[in-house]
Amino acid sequence: MTESLSNDRLTAWRAYIEASQRLLTRLEDDLRDTSGLSLADYHVLVLLSEAPGQRLRMGELAGRLVFSPSRLTYQISSMQRRGLVARQPCPQDGRGSEAVLTAAGLLALREAAPHHLHSVRMHLMDDLDDAEIAFLTRIFTRLGQRLHGTASPAHSDR
Amino acid sequence: MTESLSNDRLTAWRAYIEASQRLLTRLEDDLRDTSGLSLADYHVLVLLSEAPGQRLRMGELAGRLVFSPSRLTYQISSMQRRGLVARQPCPQDGRGSEAVLTAAGLLALREAAPHHLHSVRMHLMDDLDDAEIAFLTRIFTRLGQRLHGTASPAHSDR
DNA sequence: CCGATGTTGTTCAAATTTTAATAGCGTGCT
DNA sequence: AGCACGCTATTAAAATTTGAACAACATCGG
Questions:
Q1: Residue-wise pLDDT tens digits, B113-127
Q2: Which one of A3, A23, A153 has the shortest CB-CB distance to B117?
Q3: Which of chain B's residues have a Cβ under 8 Å away from the Cβ of A18?
Q4: Each residue's pLDDT tens digit, A21-67
Q5: Cα–Cα distance between B158 and B146 in angstroms, integer?
Q6: Distance between CA atoms of B29 and B24, rounded to whole angstroms?
Q7: Residue A16 in contact with residue A116, Cβ under 8 Å?
Q8: Cα A74 to Cα B137: distance, rounded to the nearest angstrom
Q9: How many CB atoms lie within 10 A of CB B4?
Q10: pLDDT score, position B2
Q11: CA of B2: which chain A residue's CA is closest?
Q12: Do residues A44 and A67 touch, judged by C-beta distance below 8 A?
């Protein structure tokens, strides 16, 4: 096992990590300032708004958000308190529950989206040309697919 | 103000966000399993080990880690409890303090690094060709520089 | 030198996230 | 049917992170 990275790769890695962190921080701040939502709130709203019946099982939602189950429980409870989503027991499975988008939630999303998308463009997308977009998509789509399978939230053996 | 993203860009954005989240989670788990360190611990150790005198001002460290001041205070206190770093008052500035790498901290880094780097290669780098590395570096170096200036931790007006 | 102001870190409380149980319910086997 | 097991989501407690308020010191202008 080779235990190092070439200089080029180390540089790439560090640039990626640091810039991503800064970007996330910035987007979070922008979103909070313009709409009072967190990124997590926003992502939940987006996923629900796109789902059939504007509702999703907790587990499905957690998987897509890359959230632990308990984190999602907390997140949804919080949004429920604020009236952005409702919680309903799942008809097909007595154990489960679904998060359902409320009218207020949809409205909040509609109000927040323009600002947020503007922010994403401003801080990232406007600075990238088409070739860069293509690379970004290629690299991270592949990465996401590869990471999706092998476990992580739970500990594998190794 | 155009308030949307082209489909291509939206796809790129979502792939990037989700895969990055999965990657971070995976690396964190791997690192924790093999060395008992968090990513934050590891980054602190790396930065200190590279700094002249293996010491850095709190503010400098916070800036590079993209941590809030209070978060860094907590982080360093935790590492101090575990013997990985020490805290010293700053000679030039009576207000400040420095975090200093300890022998144990350096050892912990040396032990953790091979596993962590292997993990980074495994999950990300080995899957990228040289052209992709170049794009990654280019995109995120530019992004990092651009985001570095304009404020975020504190709220600007807008 | 003195006072006004800005910095640097820390502290405290509140909010969030993690981790380790746990309750309830499905599934499959007998 | 009856039971062993696994899955789903929640809960409780501990750990972390945020955000506001502060204390101590530096810096600058008078």
A1: 999 999 999 999 999
A2: A3
A3: 64, 66, 140, 144
A4: 999 999 999 999 999 999 999 999 999 999 999 999 999 999 999 99
A5: 17
A6: 9
A7: no
A8: 36
A9: 12
A10: 60
A11: A118
A12: no
